[in-house]
Amino acid sequence: MNDALGAFVAGTDVVVQGATQGPLAGLSFAAKDLFDVQGYVTGCGNPDWLRTHAPARRSAWCVERLLAAGATLVGKTVTDEISLGLLGINRFYGTPVNPRAVDRVAGGSSSGSAAAVAGGLVDVALGTDSGGSVRVPSSYTGVYGLRPTHGAIPVEGMMTQSPTFDTVGFFADDAARLEALGDVLLPASADAAIEELLIATDAFALVDDVVRAALAGAVQRVSGAVPRVSSVAVAPEGLATWCSNQRLLQSFEFGRTFASWVDRVNPTFSFEVGRSLALAARVTEGDLAEPHQLRASARARLDELLGGGRILCLPTTPQLPVRRDATLTEMSSACDRIVELTCIAGLTGLPQVNLPLGRTAEGIPVGLSLIGSRGADRQLLKLAGQLSRIAQPAS
Amino acid sequence: MNDALGAFVAGTDVVVQGATQGPLAGLSFAAKDLFDVQGYVTGCGNPDWLRTHAPARRSAWCVERLLAAGATLVGKTVTDEISLGLLGINRFYGTPVNPRAVDRVAGGSSSGSAAAVAGGLVDVALGTDSGGSVRVPSSYTGVYGLRPTHGAIPVEGMMTQSPTFDTVGFFADDAARLEALGDVLLPASADAAIEELLIATDAFALVDDVVRAALAGAVQRVSGAVPRVSSVAVAPEGLATWCSNQRLLQSFEFGRTFASWVDRVNPTFSFEVGRSLALAARVTEGDLAEPHQLRASARARLDELLGGGRILCLPTTPQLPVRRDATLTEMSSACDRIVELTCIAGLTGLPQVNLPLGRTAEGIPVGLSLIGSRGADRQLLKLAGQLSRIAQPAS
User: Is residue B52 within 8 angstroms of chain A, CB to CB?
Assistant: First the structure.
C-alpha cells in the first residue's frame, strides 16, 4: 500500500478479505492498532507493548462485524502510544500526516485511521474514543466521525484503557458511509425525530476566534435543518470543572489498566505518555468521591437537557491543530483545552458526531459536533446525512 | 575491545592516547558517557540526548587531567539514562553485567565504569555521583570508589544534573590505584591523621541482615586500623527524613536542568526515568524551605561529628543488588532504601569512599563506606590503601 501519510503501522501488512456480499461489500477499511486482528500482535503504538504481547487469537468484535458485512480490512493504523494522546504524535511509529493541513498534526489517538480516511487511502476506518480520540482527529482532518453512546458497541478484542469511558468509534469521509457503518455496528433504536437544537454557549465561549468564525456558517446550516433552535450553558459547574473531573477519573482508570504491565516491563514511552502514567499512578480511590458525584450530576443534567428530541451543538475542538513540531508545553496546553469540550460526551457517555463543515480561510478543517441523548446514535448519523445532502462545506 | 559485559557504549570506539610520561603512565581508563571527549557526542545514556546534541569541542577537565597524567582513554561506558538511576539498568544501551554477581545489576548510574573496572577491562574509570552513582556500583561490583567532597573536582565538561549534589568520582579495583587517581584529580590537602572511627548505628540498623553479616569482619578490620572507635546515630531527624529531603532537593534541581530539553524534544525514556522527571517537574521552590533548613542542620551535624580527625563508618548499600529482571516496584523500593544511606554524604557534600571488603556466602560483594570531613578525601584514600595492605577481603 502506498502510505505517504504514514497512517499505517509500518512493517505490518494486514489484509483480510471481507464477505462477498453484505451492506458494506466493496468498501475498504482500516483498524486502529488497538483492535485485535486474528494472527497479529496488536501493537497499541508502543514497541514494548508489541514485544510483550502474543498474536490475537481472534479478531475484535467490530472487525469481525465489518468483515461479515462485506468490508475488507486493508491495514492497521497508527495510534498514539497505548491510546494516551489527543494530538496524533507518536515518537516510535511516526506522526501521521494530516492530508488537509500538512504542517499540523492529524489529532489522536486514532490518528492513522483519520488520516487514512481523509487521504482517501480507505473508505472507512475504526478508531477508539475514551477522551476524544475519534472526535479530535475527525475534526482536525475534516472527516465524519462518531463516538457512540458508551456501551453501544462491544469493546471485545479492543485494547481498553478506561472502561467507563472507552468506546469503539468510526470515521468516513462521507456521511452516507458513516451511516452505513452505524447500521452495521450500532444496536437498533426507535427512530425518534430531532425537535430542537441547543447551541452550547459555554462551549462556544471557550474556542479561538478562528474556530468560531470557521463554524458560523455550519451552525446556521444545522440550525436550518431542525424545527427549533435555542441556546444553553451546558455545565453549571463550568466546563473547566467537568474537564478536570473527567481527567481525574480517566487517569485513575488507565493508571490501573496499565499498572501491572508497566511494573513488569518498565517500558519506554515518550515523556508525554510516561508522565501521564506517572501522574495517574498517584490518583487514589479517595480522590474520586467528588468526581463521581460530579459525573452523576453531569449525566442527570445532560439527560434532562437532551430529553424530548433535543440535541446539543458545539465546536468539536477549541483551536486549530498544533504544528507537528510543537513543544511539550504547547501539546499539553492544547490537550488541556480540548478536554474542556470532549468531556461533555465523555463524562456523560453520550453519542457525539463530528461534522466536517467548517474550514478556515487557509483551508484548515474545523469540526462541528452534535451530541444526542443516550442511544440516539442513529438519529445523529441520519441528521449528518441530511445535512451533507442539503449543504456543502464552506470552501 | 572485547566487551562481554556490555560495559561500553556500543558503536562508540573511543581511544585517546595518554601522555607518554606521568604518574598514571601505562594505565587504561574508561569514562562514563556523561564526560565530554573531544570530537564525540556525549550520549548520556539516552538516544534522544545523543541525537539532539553536538560533538564536544573539548574533553572534560578530568578526562584531560588523566590523559595528561599518562592514562589512556579506551572507551565510553554505559550510564543510566541522563544519570537518573541507581541500579545500572538502561533500556536503550543495555544493563551492564555485574561480573561479580552476574544475575544481579551492577548498580548505577556509573554502571559501565564499575563493571569495566570489576571485570578487568580497564585499570580505572571515571564516574559521577549525585545521589550515589559511584558508591552504589562500587559496592555492588566490589571495587573501590570515591565520591569526593562536593566541589573538590571540577565538573567542567561533565553533564551535570543537580549542581549542588554533582561530583566527579572514580573507581579502581585496587586501593593504590584509587589513591593514585586521587593524587591527580584532587586538590592538595593537609595530611591530618585519623583519630577515631564512628560506627553509624542508625545506618547499620537500616540494612538487611545479610549485608550486616557480610560486613562484620570488615568493620572489625577497619576498627583495628584506627586509634579509637565509638558509635553514633548520624541523623537526629532520622535517615528517612534526610533521604526524603535529599530526594526533594535533587529532584527539583534535575527537573530544572532537563526541563527545556524535555519540553523541546519530548524524549523517549524508560518509564522509571520519565516518572522521575514528571514528578520532579511538580516540585516547586516553595517546597524547598524545609529541605534547605534540614540540609543546613545536617551539614552542621556532620561537620561537628567529623571534626578532630573523626571518620564515619557505614554500609554503602542496604541490600544486595536487585536481580536484572526486577520489576519496577522492586527497583523503586531498592532505590528508596539506598538513598537512606547515600543521602548522608549527598546532603552534606562530604567525601565517601567505598571499600570492597565484604562478601556474602555466595560471593556477592557488599561494600563498606567511610565518610570523612570536608576535604579529607586524600586521608580516606590513604586509609583505604593501608587497609588493603593489612587485610584481604573475606573469602
Answer: no
The reply to whether A274 touches chain B by the CB within 8 Å rule is yes
In 3D, which of A68, A65, A101, A94 has the Cα closest to residue A79?
A94
Q: What is the DSSP string of B350-376?
A: --EEEEEEEE-TT--EEEEEEE-STTT
Contact between A278 and B271 using a beta-carbon 8 Å cutoff: yes
For residue A28, the SS3 value is strand
CB contact under 8 A, B274 and A269: yes
Cα radius of gyration (chain A): 19
Cross-chain residue pair A264–B331, CB shorter than 8 Å: no
H-helix or E-strand spanning residue B232: strand B228-232
Half-sphere exposure of A153 (CA within 13 A, CB side): 33
Indicate which residues of A carry an active-site annotation.
32, 109, 133
Question: Residues A287, A176: contact at Cβ < 8 Å?
Answer: no
Q: β-pairing, A352-359 with A310-315?
A: unpaired
Query: In the numeric block, which cell numbers belong to residue B39?
Result: 570530537
B32 as an active site residue: the answer is yes
> Which residues, 6 or more positions from A192, have their beta carbon under 8 angstroms from its beta carbon?
A309, A376, A379
Instruction: At A204, list the grid cell.
Output: 462556544
Q: Which candidate, A336, A316, A318, A340, places its Cα nearest to that of A328? A: A336
Could you say which DSSP state residue B393 is in? P
CA distance B92 to chain A (A): 9
φ, ψ of residue A390 to 5 degrees: the values are: -95, -10
Max CA separation in chain B (angstroms): 57
Which of A46, A260, A264, A266 to mutate: most B Cβ within 10 Å?
A266
A223 φ, ψ (degrees, to nearest 5)? -60, -35
Amino acid at A248: L
Residues of B in contact with A332 (CB under 8 A): none
Query: Do A279 and B277 make contact, defined as CB atoms within 8 angstroms?
Result: no
Q: Evaluate whether B350 touches B369 at the Cβ level (below 8 Å).
A: no
Q: B274, A279: Cβ pair inside 8 Å?
A: no
Q: Using the beta-carbon criterion (under 8 Å), do A266 and B331 form an inter-chain contact?
A: yes
User: How many whole angstroms separate alpha carbon A115 and alpha carbon A99?
Assistant: 7
Q: Chain A partners of B274 at a C-beta cutoff of 8 Å?
A: 269, 271, 273-275, 278
- Tell me, yes or no, if B278 comes closer than 8 A to chain A by beta carbon: yes
Whether the Cβ atoms of residue B214 and residue B359 lie closer than 8 Å to each other? yes
- Main-chain phi, psi angles of A147, to 5 degrees: -100, 115
**Half-sphere exposure at residue A146, Cβ-oriented, CA atoms within 13 angstroms:** 35
A101-148 residue pLDDT tens: 999 999 999 999 999 999 999 999 999 999 999 999 999 999 999 999
Give tens-digit pLDDT for A305-354.
Answer: 999 999 999 999 999 999 999 999 999 999 999 999 999 999 999 999 99
**Would you say the C-alpha torsion B192, B198, B203, B204 has a positive or negative sign?**
positive
Cα B110 to Cα A273: distance, rounded to the nearest angstrom:
27
Q: State whether residue B259 sits within 8 Å of chain A by CB.
A: no
Contacts of A272 in chain B (CB under 8 A): 266
Instruction: State the pTM of this model.
Output: 0.94
Q: Report which of B373, B59, B18 is spatially closest to residue B192, judged by C-alpha positions.
A: B373
- Structure confidence by residue, pLDDT tens digits, B157-212: 999 999 999 999 999 999 999 999 999 999 998 778 899 999 999 999 999 999 99
Question: How far is residue B30's CA from residue B170's CA, in Å, rounded to a whole number?
Answer: 10
* DSSP 8-state symbol, A332: H
* Cβ-contact B376, B387 below 8 angstroms: no
